[in-house]
Amino acid sequence: MKINSHKTDSILIVDDDIEQLNQLVNIVKFLGRISIHKVSSANDAWSLIKIKDFDCVIASWEMSDMNGLALLRVLRNDDNYFDLPFFLSDSSFTRVKVIQAGQAGVTGLFVKPYNSNNVKQKIEVLSDPLNVDKDLEESKRMLSSGMKLIKNKQFDKALDLFKKMTEQGESAEYYYNIGYIKTAQKKYSEAISAFKKATQIDRLYAKAFKAMGQLFKKMGKAKDAEKYLQKAADLYMTEDKVNEAESILEELTEINPNTLNVYNSLGVLYRKKGDLEKALKNYQKAIKIHPNEPNIYYNIGRLYLDLKNPDAAKESFSKALEINPDFKEAKEVIQAITLGVI
Question: Please, what are the domains in the chain?
């Protein structure tokens, strides 16, 4: 549980329930000169956080796209936002939810419907410990003990401890560690089940997808290995962890050099890194394997725009449109190039 002393001049509020969103906005307005921004999805929030500085985020736990807990985990996994004050709101917090939030690094919790005095107190102070710290500290102690047992290769004792922890409250990290232990014990089917459970609890848990993919590779199940390693790479790229993504994608090329997604994903990755030459080479490899894939031509077109070569870009976008006449984005970019807007 993160407890920080922090100024609060700019707040981002995230909720897909418009009524609840507006209720909280109206409460925060009475706190004084605070700049309030509101969005209705966690994905929009993440996009906004990357381009604008906020002093505090309040996100609803339950949202249809990405939930508030997942957004919190994304932020805590990024060095730029590891200490950004972050509150979660929900209509009811079970003990399990409280522990999950604490492990993810939440600053505090708000119960819906909002209580204006409670909101005012926590935002102004940002230092009130929650009543659940005792549970949180106990879970941290048990997790630390479990990790030490794994380090010392006392796998049976570690497994007993993590199973006990899952009985107290399910956590993706608990099941990941059970999967790790089962892998070390060469109980691969049980390990896969544990890793899958971890990804069901946290669908953004890239490390569990990676572990599952590598285990399928070890088991000789190339198709499953590709599927889960690709998922892990995609998640790492979403989090801008390009080095981790690159390592996995390179591993994928060893499993199946003819996989479309690998070279296309490597192209996207190197474009993100600013290495446009490598990006183009990987897109070209993808085209050789799948010459009739419009999305690759579209990506090449975007790359040529980065290289300030609109003629080459238009040619690639036109090729994408030739393969798929309903490719709306390609049509729009061609029109923009023709009009000189780009």
Answer: 10-131 (3.40.50.2300)
